[in-house]
Model the fold of this input.
Amino acid sequence: MQTNTVTLTQAKTETKARRNPRGVFEKVTGSGEWWICYWDGQGRKRRETAGSKSNAILLYRKRKTEALQGKKLPEKLRRATVTFADIAREALAYSKAHKRTYGDDLARMERILGWFRDRSADSITPQEIERHFEQCIEDERWAPSTVNHYRSLLSLTYRLAIRDGKVTSNPARATRHRREDNSRVRYLTPEEEIKLRTEMDARWKGHFPELDLALHTGLRLSEMYGLDWQDVDLARCLILVRRGKNGESRYARLNSVALKALTELRKRGDGTGAV
Done:
């Protein structure tokens, strides 16, 4: 009988030990995002995000001590903390609904979340952002355009958060915009073109018209595969690129090689719809 009593007592102790401390909880099980719930010195119920479980336990004890001492919380702590992860989700939802570069934004945001995920969005400074940029330039040889893409995504994230009343300032605006050198034009050398055609002959023999069209118009991959036959004017030797870089439209001229390539491509279909 005594053995059973001891076993039951141990089981109750172990069950109690597995429970979360009072006032500490994980909002979404398995998310790793821990919160605290407590009553402040003025008798109002408060909730705050604290990051890890250990931080949540320490913060809960601190808030309980402050409540017992009758301390009044600073205004910025009277509302639930908005983490960077919170405003990042809103930015990605906006990007998915309104931007063609959602896939790129998603990949970039993963990197940024690695820097700031559980941080309070209002606590991130321009200096911290710059340090991360400089580290990536040094370690990974980021180009100026790469830095600017990350800067733009961060700025969008904070602009949307300001609109929604979640933060009060945009630290990305105070970071430096890198100057990009877009004046350099790169052409294939004759030797490089021969090497490319040899490789294509071995692996993608049926795609020489696409190669010729790209080489002789300068169209980007996305522009080529977004072409529609209604945008091809063979009589005037022009192609209308409806959505080029930055969403702007432009015309590309067709020389004899590009015209021949388009003729070959038209033979594959009925001359309507996508090229």
